[in-house]
Amino acid sequence: MAAVDNSFLEIEEYHNRTYQSYAINNLSYLAPSDEDEIERLNSFHSVLNRVFDGRLIFPPIQRPRRILDCGYGTGAWAAEVAEQNPRCEVLGVDINPMMQPDEMPDNLYLQVDDLNRRFTFSAHNFDLVHSRMVAAGIHANRWPQYLRDLLRVTRPGGWTQMVELYCNAQSDNGSLTDDHALSQWSARYLESMEGLKDLRAPLRLPEMMREAGFVDVEHRMIQLPMCGWATDQRENEIGTANRENIHSMLSSLAIYPFTERLRMSIQDVHLLVAQARLEADNPAFKV
């Protein structure tokens, strides 16, 4: 890997969690970048592998030569794709170089850059462009150009694959009300990002992609259970596997935006998170 600008390597502490200074100062990404978050992201990657039945690439691409991964995080998806496609060059871009794996396949190249900046890649460069879980990082006013950037670097006949999560807790049986902690957590998370990030963008992705110029847009909305409440064995196993991720996520996504942007006390944040975890664990709510 080439030398990294030192500004991307500086860190700061908030309430016993470690954050990348660049991401915080530029309001690019407000989640931690410490060992606990690396563990959570890798756990979430495993959950998504279950959800997608082990498929890393959805479109019908035969023998890809170049793949771009936008927002590689811990590098889990990019590393697996590189291993499965040894003759393909896999390039990852992320704002934070501090969560990269220690060992990587020889055909995986990870770069450091802010996805909120215009892409510098030449046009029609990649057979597949992959973008996953970037809604908490992309600035609200950046989305139209971000999607146009994805399209511009995708070769003719190539594909762009996007996966996003809408962080809004809902119960399958309607038993979760606005008074419950999970609902309050969801509402405050949306409020904490208001005017900065468009956390509802995942709901509009198909329309936004078509507006950016994409064709043959296919989409699916998939329910992601927070614990093992489902009677269906596969759904139950996904929920059981997702429980650890949810417990960590309720804390890691909330600490900085709730305390610094909503000015909640850290004690109130911890209390809300603890109550939300209990509800997420309760199979009666079917969340």
Please give the share of residues in helix: 25-40%
Intertermini distance? 42 Å
Biggest sheet architecture: 5 strands, parallel
Count every beta strand, where a strand is a DSSP E run of 2 or more residues. 7
Report the sheet-strand fraction: 5-15%
Overall structural class, as computed from helix and strand content, comes to alpha/beta
Secondary structure tally, helices: 9
- Along the chain, the helix and strand elements come as EEHHEHEEEHEHHHHH
Oligomer, anyone? single chain
- Major sheet: arrangement of strands: 5-4-3-6-7
**Low-pLDDT residue spans:** none
Structure description:
The longest helix has 20 residues, at 233-252. It is globular, with a radius of gyration of 19 Å. The strands form two sheets. It has a five-stranded parallel β-sheet. The protein has 287 residues and is α/β, with parallel strands linked by helices. It has helices at 21-25, 35-51, 76-84, 143-153, 181-192, 201-212, 233-252, 255-261, 266-281, and strands spanning 11-14, 17-20, 66-70, 89-94, 108-112, 126-132, 154-163.
